[in-house]
Amino acid sequence: MNKNNFPEKQGLYDAAMEKDSCGVGFITHIKGIKSHSILKQGLQILKNLKHRGAVGADANTGDGSGITIQIPHEFFKEEVKKCKIELPTPEDYAVGMIFLPREPNVRLFCQGIFEKVLRAENQKLLGWREVPINEDACGESAKATRPVIMQVFIDRNNQPDKVFRQQLLIIRKQVQNLIDNSKRANVESFYICSLSHRTIVYKGLILGYRLEDFYLDLQNSNVKTAIAIVHERYSTNTFPSWQLAQPFRYIAHNGEINTIRGNINKMNAREGVMYSKSFGDNFKKTLPVIEPGGSDSASLDNALELFIENGYSLEYSLMMLIPEAWQKDFSMNEDKRSFYEYHARLMEPWDGPATIAFTDGIKLGVILDRNGLRPARYIITKDDLVIMSSETGVVDINYDAVKEKGLVEPGKIFLIDTSKQKIISDEEIKQSAYKSKPFTEWIKRNKLTLDDIKQNCEAKSIRTETLLLKQKVFGYTEEELRKVLACMINNGKEPIGSMGMDIPLAVLSNRPQLIFNYFKQAFAQVTNPPIDPIRESMVMSLTQYIGTHGRIVDEVETETDKKYIELKHPILSNSQLEDIKHLDDDDLKAITLPIIFETDRKDGLEEALTYLCKRAEESILKGYNILILSDRNINLYYAPIPSLLALSAVNAYLIEKKLRTSADLIVETGDARDVMHMALLIGYGAKAVNPYMVYYTISNMIEK
């Protein structure tokens, strides 16, 4: 089992594919007035979301639940006196909620690492407190993996708010990395649920309606809060674990991030080039940004935390990570569109059906994905309570007490700021973001189109004899030409085929197969409604951007010009690719790398892939930021490396070397001719594809 108690990777199972679909809700007092009743009503929401959770064969063990509240200072001040700890004033100390191994020596080892890092970062430890629990409230399966739950108290010691928060992040990351890398037995249970001077998370592998029975703290009337976010987990086709129960440090998420593998790879690749002025040299101590072994929700929480601790507001960060549908909304304010376009170059969207509740202990809100595939409904009462949940009826409210009720629209943010004692509208939030910098002016100065770089380069032609020979090399069949390509030429769309398959799977076939044929579409059968790309074209986009961008995490670099190219779709004609090949200036510099190998060498393919990856790395270090992988130059002695194999090798190698975000990859290939082929190439890292053999084949078919 790995650190989250998932099985090790085996066969078709990979813990990296873990996702979940859940119930989420929150309650807050707009004016920030703390009370025990807010906690009780938050727990009531959790109880009423019972049907959103899941249980296994052990009916008393759920998939996980939890609650995020503000630090209850009055409660802790009295409670920790039993541990001989004197607490300073509210927000002048941080509380960490920590899962520790049950084996005593390993537990002491983990606590020792924590205290050692605290001392190294010149932070003051106030003490530890073991959290009282009722083990009878969790099922047998949960008991078997239950950690020891401790709270650690750290003095702020007169540090500025921003500095203290950054130090807490550095401490948490270093401690987790040191313990994970120690390779010591039984340290898998160690996990820091939260470490903050404003919020604390109580969570676990507990059924939601039993959470307060398990955590005795939650029964104490001195535990008061103005904010409560709750979450009931339903792990879709996955394994539950104590660590992956929600809420996380900032968010509680209902839904799935379908782009998660790409998001994680891109974030890992950025670590080699990005830096933070406010963190300085300490920024390296916060890496990796995405903690290994986390779920899609945990990874999103990590990414959000990166931007928040680098000075961005909660809502600004979420606008970057989960943008609304803007590319085809021509009624949208120009400055707002420019904001999204500017950040689309910096951060790919974390996309998928999602309702995400979030808080930093002062602000509290919810954001929906661009499609609005997960509902969020809210009620505002006359006595200044705001209740939000996946559905209505989660808290007993007198109808006469209701001031307003509604639902959050796709891509919109619903926010309560308890420091300002008001609800902030989506329009006000986004206006504040897009007015913060001159995004529109920057876009106008720097955006190029394919027409802007047109250089009247003559596209290469091909003889009929050579075309027929290359069609054989790339595996074209007469059936493909007549039934697939001809249909697309005549109708402008894919041919309609049966969902049934009466031919052997590629992996079982005795005939040579394109690598593309070994892939089948993955989809979530349980949670995702089908998407119609025609009727829902407003939220669909094929736009791609080519060009480098700023690398400073904590600064929006609109003062620095960086030219980039907008592609309306990722399929390039032969002449368009020729124009790109001739780019050679400070902002856009292209180089072509052949993806071919010697056929008469024993290990020719493997050696060619190794050399290709090395050349890609060297090219980036020399300043090239557009790498064109081309199999055009095949001949009697050199055969093409399958484009998907070459692309994925270069993509993975550059991610490993932390250079992937320093260059864009374009594929010039003869083996791609189907929509699925293009989708796979784009999915594996290509910004654009030039299927040159398709164009030559079409011209030849027309001439005939």
Mean pLDDT: 90
Strand order of the largest sheet: 7-2-8-1-13-12-14
CATH class of the largest domain: Alpha Beta
CATH fold type of the largest domain? Glutamine Phosphoribosylpyrophosphate, subunit 1, domain 1
Residue share in helices?
A: 25-40%
The radius of gyration computed from the alpha-carbon positions, rounded to a whole number of angstroms, is 28 Å
Structural class determined from secondary elements: alpha+beta
InterPro entries: Aldolase_TIM, ET-N_metabolism_enzyme, GATase_2_dom, Glu_synth_centr_N, Ntn_hydrolases_N
Pfam families: GATase_2, Glu_syn_central
Family: Belongs to the glutamate synthase family.
Organism: Clostridium carboxidivorans P7
Can you walk through the features of this model?
The protein has 704 residues and is an alpha+beta fold. It folds into two domains: 22-436, Glutamine Phosphoribosylpyrophosphate, subunit 1, domain 1 (4-Layer Sandwich); 464-493 and 503-703, Aldolase class I (TIM Barrel, Alpha-Beta Barrel). It is built from 19 helices and 25 strands. The strands form six sheets. The protein has a seven-stranded antiparallel beta sheet, covered by helices on one side. Strands 9-10-11-15-16 form a five-stranded antiparallel beta sheet. It has a four-stranded antiparallel beta sheet with strand order 4-5-3-6, covered by helices on one side. Strand 15 and strand 16 form a beta hairpin. It is elongated and about 90 Å long. The protein starts with 22 loop residues before the first strand and ends with a helix. Its cofactor is [3Fe-4S] cluster; FMN.
